[in-house]
Amino acid sequence: MLRAGCRMALDVGSSGDWDGRWRHVQKFLERSGPFTHPDFEPSEETLQFLLETCKILVIGAGGLGCELLKNLALSGFRHIHVVDMDTIDVSNLNRQFLFRSKDVGHPKAEVAADFINSRVPGCHVVPHFKKIQEFDESFYRQFHIIVCGLDSIIARRWMNGMLLSLLVYDDGVLDPSSIIPLIDGGTEGFKGNARVILPGMTACIDCTLELYPPQINFPMCTIASMPRLPEHCIEYARILQWPKEKPFGDGVALDGDNPEHIHWVFQKSLERAAEFNIIGVTYRLTQGVVKRIIPAVASTNAVIAAACATEVFKIATSAYVPLNNYLVFNDVDGLYTYTFEAERKENCSACSQVPQKLQFPPSAKLQEVLEYLTENASLQMKSPAITATLEGKNKTLYLQTVASIEEKTRPNLCKTLKELGLADGQELAVADVTTPQTVLFKLNFTS
Amino acid sequence: MTMADHKTNKDQRYDRQLRLWGDHGQEALENAHVCLVNAAASGTEILKNLVLPGIGAFTIVDGHRVSGEDVGNNFFLSSDSVGKNRAQATTELLQELNTDVSGNFVEENPDRLLDNDPEFFHRFSLVIAVQLEESTCLRLGSVLWNAAVPFLVCRTYGLVGYMRLVVREHTVVESHPDNALEDLRLDQPFPELTNHITSYDLDNMEKKHDFQLPRNYKEKEAFRQLLREGIRKNENGTPEEEENFDEAIKNVNTALNPSKIPTAVEDLFNAEQCENITSQSPAFWVMVRAVRDFVQAEGRGSLPVRGTIPDMIADSDKFISLQNVYRERALQDAAAVSRHVESHLQAVGKVCKNAAFLRVVHCRALVEEYGVDTVHKDEITSCMDNPDSEMVLYLMLRSVDCFYQQHSRYPGVYNYQVEDDIVRLKLCVHSLLQEYGLTVNVKDDYVHEFCRYGAAEPHTVAAFMGGAAAQEAIKLITHQFVPFNNTFIYNAMAQTSATFQL
């Protein structure tokens, strides 16, 4: 019950609530309005649903994650899980406000959960210091809504694939109760985007793969023999000199977070630059290139996480029609937003039920198929593993991610599809980090 | 920790943002002192996004005591803050975010401060007011306008966000445009460039087209063909694969853009502040004048050369020596501009490099926006051709302010008030439209919706505005990137926004 303007000492009830606590939220749940969702009915029970029942999963406890946890907690959500595999770094502190200097080195998910739980009484954030791939369907199925604040396209695609795998079809008709909405946010400097994905219904991550900007990789000949920019000198040290000189020992990989490693690369880059009269190699630039650092500020993360949290609220309460379905933001020059409906791709390799095809002549080498899987703009796989059923048995044609198997299957790359015993119309199963489920391709021989 | 250690630690902490606004931007931020009026959620969210990047200092002015409602939507209040002064309680939790920042508070109602000590506000780099009643807002706006202190008004009202920038004149040297064209001067090569190029075999162009560059599609096609013919052929007459020629052909459209002075910069040259340089002139205008002088003299109609060229496929030696030709010319031009400058200015190099991107923002005073004779009627009316334009949200905010003036409260705060307040608010809308002579249609749905809001400040909308406003504040303090001009509306229902000049 609402009591008018009570200013007495805080009377914290058994639920951890005090008078007026949820007043800002209640107006949207208990009053009818002209712009509400068609399914919306004003009720005092919706708030109870948020407080007691609704379960949200936040992926990532970094720049977006910290903001998301705060936003959800102050909107009435109490049952929140957060997954993050990282530990806290000093460079996070300019925007990941749930962390302090003393927390450096500790798991982000755990420190974030502790902070929210103590600042917002009654809120119960459960942390998971793990990779998203360490969980299976039984974990993800328990959530009403999942919201992502990730910094990796691969992880996004994996999450996307996981929710698609949870969909249930009865006689070809999608069962709506199997849909878990996915809200996805991303930022880079002063730019950001927020999108609402209803798996099986709206455009998914893979439907719009082409929207993501390609990573900058300089051509090898430029790096090796014709450097012009300081970046070329740094890549020379990173890609060519490090593996050759092994400055910190055999098998020791370049660690972008190790200042000694960066210092080595920095010195080598300066030498290379001096050879070619190139100016501009700095320690900061070296670090930026080696770690592929993306600039980041608190403000952009605040905006995008806020938009995402607003969508979580709308979907959980039916208070308003959710964003349909993509918001772009840029505040380099004034403030610019653009809202549009991203369309589903008819033959999307992730969410359409259209069987994927591979068209190759029988004389094509397996290497060509591998290149297609990684270079095709709609597939963009990272390290696909290809298997086929031959003579009744499951045979791995090529797998990169386990060194011993890679070595054994490498000769297959130079063999033709015919030599490998593959037939026209054969099914190939492809596994990759970009998806939790294998993708089935049908092999069609061209002449 | 030693000074050096502290500096390295700060470099690490701020690394991700230093890559956006540089050490000089960071310095400007650390020398700034911002005032926040009202520590409501919208305000503390803004401050959070200024404290985290290391603003020098902040001062919160707020006479309110913390209510249970406040703690519910404000991250910088805890359950034992109730009853305390809101300025003090929020300062403590904001300060805790970053020990480099100096946090202060004044337990006072802004109206009282304006009565007793308006000059209190003169000391700040920027004043930000949130959730402030119209009358106090206008008073504060007037004081700050006369003192030339930038003023940023921000509010969250239900699912609507609002920001208004009030600054007389804001100059931007580094606007960092996203997609700028290069400054190659191919149409007006300076002598050193001509000499350098003639050491390559390229005399055909000059002879056939009277020293003019291709101007239209037909001529550019002919030029591309010329380039194609330049590609070496093997014994069979097949053209070799030459990446640098391919790159040249691909870039014909953009590389041959005429080297014109942008209109925005011409406007600066024609401005009164540039024409009349006095000992009071800000450094910016002195430098603009020096650049104009350069254009009329050594520049022969052109701006100082930018000095950077895009990466292009070439041998290292040839690229570096070409790059040096542009670089040296840029240095010479900057030196010439310096000579046109009378007083001591360190930033000339930066101004020259950014000459094509200099920007100035002038925002109208609040009195002009509110004045019956000076209201931007046409802007409002034409936006309202679409009755669901964000402009209707602006009109509704003005209407709830009218309501507050009449009833000393906002509409629909309590459930029992909603129905009757819809009628009252509609009257306010009509009187507002009549007062300004606006023949527009405000749909009943919006009146109903704004009563429904009951002046609520949902956290997610406050957080959005917190991010948006903080970045505008950073732009104002660092003089990098271009601020909005002058009214920004965010619609969280539809996830859309618009900027108006009112």
Would you mind describing this structure in some detail?
The complex is a heterodimer of chains A (447) and B (502). The radius of gyration of chain A is 25 Å and the shape is globular. Chain A has helices at residues 23-30, 45-53, 63-73, 108-119, 137-140, 153-165, 220-225, 230-245, 259-276, 283-290, 298-317, 366-375, 403-409; strands at residues 55-59, 79-83, 124-128, 145-148, 169-170, 173-174, 182-188, 191-197, 326-330, 336-340, 356-360, 385-390, 393-398, 427-432, 435-445. Chain A has 447 residues and is an alpha/beta fold. Chain A contains 13 helices and 15 strands. In chain A, α3 (63-73) crosses α11, α8 crosses α9 (259-276) and α9 (259-276) crosses α10 (283-290). In chain A, 32% of the residues lie in helices and 18% in strands. Chain B has 502 residues and is α/β, with parallel strands linked by helices. Chain B has 23 helices and ten strands. Chain B has helices at residues 3-13, 15-30, 41-51, 68-73, 86-95, 110-116, 134-146, 191-198, 204-208, 217-229, 243-250, 252-255, 263-270, 272-275, 283-296, 316-340, 348-353, 366-370, 377-383, 391-407, 418-435, 444-453, 459-478, and strands at 33-37, 57-61, 102-106, 126-130, 151-157, 160-166, 170-172, 359-361, 487-491, 496-500. In chain B, a hairpin with a 4-residue loop joins β9 and β10. The two termini of chain B are 50 Å apart. Classes of the chains: A alpha/beta (447), B alpha/beta (502). Chains A and B meet through α1, α3, α10 and α11 of A and α1, α2, α3, α4 and α16 of B.
Give Rg of chain B in angstroms.
28 Å
What is the CA-atom radius of gyration of chain A, in angstroms?
Answer: 25 Å
Secondary-structure-derived class of chain A = alpha/beta
Query: Which chain pair has the greatest contact?
Result: A-B, 82 and 85 residues
Roughly what is the average pLDDT of chain A, rounded to an integer? 93
Number of strands of chain B: 10
- Main beta-sheet annotation of chain A: 8 strands, mixed
